[in-house]
Amino acid sequence: MVSQAEENYLKALFHLTSDIPEKTEAGTNELADMLDVTPATANNMLKKLKEKGWVSYEKYGKISLTDKGRVLAVEIIRKHRLWETFLYEKLNFTWDEVHEVAEQLEHIQSVKLVQQLEKFLDFPEIDPHGDPIPNEKGEIRFIKRKTLAEIEESKTCKLVAVKDNSSSFLQYVVKLGLGLSSKIKVLGRREFDGSMEIEVNKVRSSISKKVAQNLLVV
Asked: Has residue 43 been placed in a domain?
């Protein structure tokens, strides 16, 4: 049996070690920051996860998911993204509301419920934030994406996902006139702080480097 806390650690480790294809390990401080806990607290949990065979880890060394750990992490992420899709498509939650509710629903253990949920939604491939939904076999269709911060001046791109799922960030993105599939033209970049001038639906806006780094485009 996996506890909710253990599931949260496995999911966080997956994001830290799998969202970037060439990255397979994470540091203790990195993990602690993501979960908003102290490094000592993270170390204690990592000992338990190692004993269960879910992570490869030496104290204060690099951490990676084992094959068993990755299977569990992908299943948690699969449930989370299916619930987000259900809330967004069927219950009229906005994309800045679904994440926190899905955080609660992802811990439900019923395999049949998840299978029926996926079938009810007609086997969706992406969630409301543009992230790929793992299928029942645990396969994930990774999409090659760049951050908006990497796009050259005068180029136009399409928003396909966001890295930051927090309500405050998503509400800000909506105020910019952005949603999934929005076309963004990069008008200019300030060398001093990396901020950018962009155009969305013929409306110009200025955004910070941090915002640009959290918008994923193709």
From this structure: yes
Strand order, beta sheet including 183-189: 146-147, 215-217, 156-162, 183-189, 196-200, 203-207
For the stretch 138-193, pLDDT in tens is 998 877 889 999 999 999 999 998 988 888 999 999 999 998 889 999 999 998 88
Are the C-beta atoms of residues 161 and 146 closer than 8 Å to each other?
no
Q: How far apart are CA 82 and CA 163, in angstroms?
A: 17
Q: Which helix (H) or strand (E) holds 42?
A: helix 39-51
The answer to which of 58-62, 70-74, 83-87, 198-202 has the lowest mean pLDDT is 58-62
Query: According to the per-residue pLDDT averaged within each range, which of 25-34, 55-64, 74-83 is highest?
Result: 74-83
Q: Kindly state whether residue 31 falls inside one of the protein's structural domains.
A: yes
Number of domains within the chain: 2
Q: What is the dihedral of CA 144, 149, 152, 153, to 10 degrees?
A: 140
Q: Note every long-range contact of 70-73, with CB atoms under 8 Å and residues 24 or more positions apart, other chains counting.
A: 70/14, 70/18, 71/138, 72/2, 72/7, 72/10, 73/10, 73/11, 73/13, 73/14
In the numeric block, the tokens 């496995």 are attached to 10
Amino acid at 52: K
Contact indicator for 128, 88 with CB cutoff of 8 Å: yes
Rg of the chain over all Cα atoms, to the nearest angstrom: 19
What is the CATH number for 178? 2.30.30.90
